[in-house]
Amino acid sequence: MGNIIRSNSKILDKARIFEKEAANNISYKEKPSFHLSAPVGWINDPNGFSMFKGEYHLFYQYHPYDIKWGPMHWGHSKTKDFIKWEQLPTVLAPDEEYDMGGCFSGSAIELDGTHVLMYTGVVDKVEEDGSHFIRQTQCVAIGDGIDYEKLDCNPVIDSFLLPEGSKLEDFRDPKMWKDGDYFYVVVGSRHADESGQILLYKSKDLRNWSFVSVLDRSENKLGRMWECPDFFKLDGSDIMIISPQEVKAKGLKFHNGHNTAYLIGQYDKENYKFNRESYEPIDFGLDFYAPQTLETEDGRRIMIGWMQSWENNIVPSSFKWCGMMTIPRELTMKDGHLIQNPIREIENYYKNTVKYENQLIQNEVNLDGILGREIDMTVEISGTDYEDFTISVAKNNEYETIINFDPKKDLISFDRSYSSKLGDLLHKREIKVRNQNGKIKLRLIIDKYSVEIFVNDGEQVMTSTFYTELDATGISFYAKGNATVSIEKHDIVVE
Ligand code: FRU
Q1: 320: exposed, middle or buried (Cβ count in 10 Å: 0-12, 13-18, 19+)
Q2: For the CA of 227, the nearest atom of ligand 1
Q3: Within a 13 Å sphere around the CA of 300, how many CA atoms are in the beta-carbon half?
Q4: What does the pLDDT look like over 318-363, one tens digit per residue?
Q5: Residue 286 C-alpha to ligand 1 middle, in angstroms?
Q6: In terms of domains, do 107 and 126 share one?
Q7: Mean pLDDT, range 239-247, rounded to an integer
Q8: Among 195, 203, 259, 343, which one has the highest count of C-beta atoms within 10 angstroms of its own C-beta?
Q9: Stated pTM of the model
């Protein structure tokens, strides 16, 4: 590409040296075994989820020095199969005038054997009167899969390229792709009405960009600022993913604060218009935000999200690491709805399979061989003669994490009130599921501190964390009345 400055960054070197030593002091036994987690310190959004030289790379918002959010670096990992992750050195540090306030979220593409990152450079200066001068701009760094150089012409999209009336302080999280001769990028922004909008830019050379159009806007109907957009085609629909802030609760679909949503519509490529038809929440759990997708070589659209919440952070303060990603999920569309299923490669790690067919559950039942904190377990419940069905996981004498199904109300709840966090945060969430006369299929992916509940083959998902001691491995079932279940449990063993 030419014109790349060889960076000589003390701030980056410091992070690389620090993380190497500090991460070695954390036992793998206390980390999730097949979910990507912070090597040390804090992580949030997935960034730059992309294929490069036949492997899948994932970067993330990263503050290695503390388990709280701080000056943002980009941490880095890669995988061949989305299950087994390899840790790589930090790639970006806030070390230039235009990103001193942090290297915020962004994306990546492979181009002619190089790996191109686009991220948000933040300037955040405290003025004499204590106020903050904030500017967010889009910057490019190019690398070889290990080392990345920021372009000398950064920022490549600055505040002058914002459409009139946009706020200069909120302009972030570029998601880039290539189509024909052009590079395109969607960026989250805040309109003068204080709520979110998604801006489209294009470029022929990654350095000179022009503003194209506003693809969609909240108009204060779906939260305020829209963060972390993604935009792609899926089974004939055009899907825009957003992470809106300050959403107002709406039934069981949206809760107060940070949410995620997918907007379904048709993208008119000629006129750069996205005609939105509807929108829905992506995940109904307590811990899911800022998802990003990539397309695999075999054409699957895979999504990964940050498995934590801004508002309800329950990670124990004794931990030296904070933050996990979801299991990568295969996305498809069915009847106009997004379907999410765990990446199929998980099956390569199945061990100790235990099955029960048509097992009657009355009151509380423990089943031989059904236990564990690193498992993939499918439970199919049926019967018309029961009122309540509960699966308790991560259970010991003191604690349990409760998943309940009410077949009369078609409600599923997740409840971590008794999961050892002694803090008055949000512990429970409910979803309304499709009525099937007492039948339901729940697939639980549990990896030490999290459960992702895939309902009815991915029609809905509920993702939440809990930090109960790891020796709480018990699982029990309870039915009020008579329920029949079929269960298939696999341990997930990653060596
Ligand atoms: C979303 C977000 C992004 C931003 C990043 C900062 O979680 O607020 O908008 O780029 O986190 O870490």
Answers
A1: middle
A2: 9
A3: 19
A4: 999 999 999 999 999 999 999 999 999 999 999 999 999 999 999 9
A5: 18
A6: yes
A7: 98
A8: 259
A9: 0.97
| 430 three-class SS | strand
- CATH at residue 408: 2.60.120.560
In degrees and rounded to multiples of 5, residue 48 shows phi and psi of 55, 35
* Whether residue 141 is found in the same domain as residue 191: yes
Within this chain, do residues 287 and 357 fall inside the same structural domain, yes or no? no
Residues 174 and 251 in one domain: yes
* Burial track 102-113 (b if 16+ CB lie within 10 A, e otherwise): bbbbbbbbbeee
Catalytic residue among 13, 45, 173, 205: 45
Testing ligand 1's pocket by substitution, the residue of 72, 104, 122, 242 carrying the most ligand atoms inside 8 A of its CB is 104
One domain, residues 298 and 195: yes
- Helix H or strand E segment including 337: strand 337-342
Q: Are residues 291 and 377 in the same domain?
A: no
Does the pLDDT of residue 1 top 80, yes or no? no
Range of the domain at 424: 349-492
β-sheet with 329-334: strand ranges across: 289-295, 301-306, 329-334, 337-342
Does 133 lie in the same domain as 110?
yes
| Contact (CB, 8 A) for 100 and 139 | no
Secondary structure (DSSP) of 139-150: EEEEESSS-EEE
